[in-house]
Automatic annotation (TrEMBL):
SUPFAM superfamilies: Glyceraldehyde-3-phosphate dehydrogenase-like, C-terminal domain, NAD(P)-binding Rossmann-fold domains
Domain Glucose-6-phosphate dehydrogenase C-terminal: start-end pairs: 178-451
Gene: zwf_3
Domain Glucose-6-phosphate dehydrogenase NAD-binding, residue spans: 7-173
Record protein name field: Glucose-6-phosphate 1-dehydrogenase
Family note: Belongs to the glucose-6-phosphate dehydrogenase family.
EC numbers for this chain: 1.1.1.49
Keyword NADP annotated: yes
Pfam families linked: G6PD_C (PF02781), G6PD_N (PF00479)
Binding site for NADP(+): R43, D84, V85, K134
Length: 461
């Protein structure tokens, strides 16, 4: 276990809302002892006192569910250094100390290459680890280059490419349920499953995050990482163990089996859109282009949808639809598995039959099955819904992420080749979108998203 954590970008949103509360959760659960030291780096010219005051305030706001003594212990073990990640002397002062250090880059993705280069120039103590947030690179070439820089810095086992969805118990439940249940395991294939929707629709709009989001957009922020990781868990061959190599090998198999899209496919099988002014409940929401800090010239999408197929014996014939949007009328965060109809129904009203749908709730957690039951005189079909709730997770996702980093368990982080394969899947989409082959639609904030185009519409490419 490593006892030193250095966070660059510590004055940012991720640090305030997730990393600091996660550390309080780890302290409360007894995972962080008195040896633990936290060094935070930011570009603000603050002293330690002022920064600790800021940390205490963020913990009161975002980590209030953790005990006060755990929060106080995190504040007490924190020191602050002013550092720009491009300045070797400032970076050296952050990582200085005894023994290996875990270096967390909670930075905008565009800054990762410069940060890794500086760390290389400064040098890390033996046994150190490096943690990078998503998206890993800004495109395939960027990911390849970043992997090359990292390989010069530390061994691959010491690189943690974070996708915190993998650490969510609800996400792990998708894999657990399908491989550990006799009822599901034999029907988990294209013979029985027609379509899988992997959806992260949120009613939150930009919420002041233009600095990060504008120019990145929904495809790179959500689909390229979180939703493709979910696709891997839904579609992977049952792993023989949950060790790091086996899990990540099986995920890469899925990414490699994605049928390559052409730009022409991208026109028919992808959608992008951004929100215009509207209301979510009683809250007025400005158009995305009127949000503070947004450059309309970036044509950033706040909604992305991609339809994929896998060329594999198990999945040939099943459609996988990945979709995420902001400022929508309702939160819908789930994996919905739609089964094929039964071959024959002995009922008069069989036209009313709906396909069975198994829904894995990602947030809030839960398992739901929409299916058909028999009505009162056994001659009619009625829709039924079965619901199950799960126990709340012991640790928040970022608590698990940080614990894995400190312990050196990389099973729930993304390997370098996986990150590159994920970009490879979406490169034709990025290319088609950059050439405007797919129109940037609009949808009112608070709506269900853009109206789907007619599927028989002629292709323009
Ligand atoms: P923010 O823009 O809020 O914070 C970025 C931080 O990086 C700021 O502290 C900023 O300092 C610092 N920074 C920027 N450039 C430099 C530099 N050259 N040297 C030193 N520090 C620098 O972004 P987020 O915290 O939201 O996101 C950080 C990362 O986490 C991103 O990769 C994002 O994708 C990922 N992430 C964020 C989530 C979230 O909900 N916020 C969720 C999941 C992942 P300054 O203020 O001085 O510019």
């Amino acid at each position: 276990m490593i006892h030193r954590l250095a966070v660059f970008g510590a004055t940012g949103d991720l640090s305030a809302r997730y990393l600091l509360p996660a550390l309080a959760a780890l302290r409360a659960a007894g995972h962080l002892g008195d040896r633990f030291q936290l060094t935070c780096a930011g570009r603000e010219d603050w002293d330690g006192e002022r920064f600790r005051h800021w940390v205490a305030g963020r913990l009161d706001r975002h980590g209030a569910s953790w005990p006060a003594d755990a929060r106080k212990a995190i504040v007490a073990c924190t020191r602050y250094r002013r550092a720009d990640v491009t300045d070797p002397a400032e970076v050296a002062s952050v990582i200085a100390g005894d023994g290996p250090v875990a270096v967390y880059l909670a930075l905008p993705p565009a800054v990762f290459p410069a940060a890794v280069t500086t760390l290389h120039d400064v040098g890390l103590p033996p046994g150190s680890r490096i943690v990078l947030e998503k998206p890993f690179g800004e495109d395939l070439d960027g990911a390849v280059e970043l992997n090359r820089l990292l390989a010069d810095l530390v061994p691959e086992q010491a690189v943690f490419r974070v996708d915190h969805f993998l650490a969510m118990t609800t996400v792990q439940n998708v894999l657990g349920s399908r491989v550990a249940n006799r009822v599901l395991a034999p029907i988990w294939n294209s013979i029985h499953i027609a379509e899988v929707e992997i959806v992260w629709d949120e009613s939150l709009a930009l919420e002041g995050r233009a600095g990060y989001y504008d120019g990145v957009g929904a495809l790179k922020d959500m689909v390229q990482n979180h939703l493709l990781q979910l696709l891997c868990l839904v579609a992977m061959e049952p792993p023989i163990s949950l060790d790091e190599r086996e899990l990540r090998d099986r995920k890469v198999d899925v990414l490699r089996s994605v049928r390559p899209l052409t730009e022409k496919d991208a026109v028919r099988r992808t959608r992008r859109a951004r929100y215009k002014a509207g209301r979510i409940g009683d809250r007025p929401v400005p158009a995305y282009t009127d949000e503070e800090g947004v450059d309309p010239g970036h044509h950033t999408e706040t909604f992305a949808e991609v339809e994929l197929e896998l060329d594999s014996p198990r999945w040939s014939g099943t459609v996988f639809r990945l979709r995420s949007g902001k400022a929508l009328g309702h939160d819908r965060k789930e994996v919905a598995v739609r089964f094929r109809p039964v071959p024959h129904l002995p009922f008069g009203n069989s036209g009313d039959a709906r396909p069975d749908v198994l829904r894995f709730g990602l947030e809030p957690e839960g398992l739901t099955m929409d299916l058909m039951g028999i009505g009162s005189r056994a001659q009619t079909l009625v829709p039924l819904t079965l619901t199950a709730r799960m126990d709340p997770p012991g640790l928040p996702a970022y608590g698990q992420v940080l614990l894995d980093v400190l312990r050196g368990d990389a099973a729930l982080s993304v390997r370098g080749d996986e990150a590159e394969e994920s970009w490879r899947v979406l490169t034709p989409v990025l290319s088609a979108w950059s050439k405007d082959l797919v129109p940037l639609q609009e949808y009112p904030a608070g709506s269900d998203g853009p109206v789907p185009p007619r599927r028989d519409a002629p292709c323009s490419a």
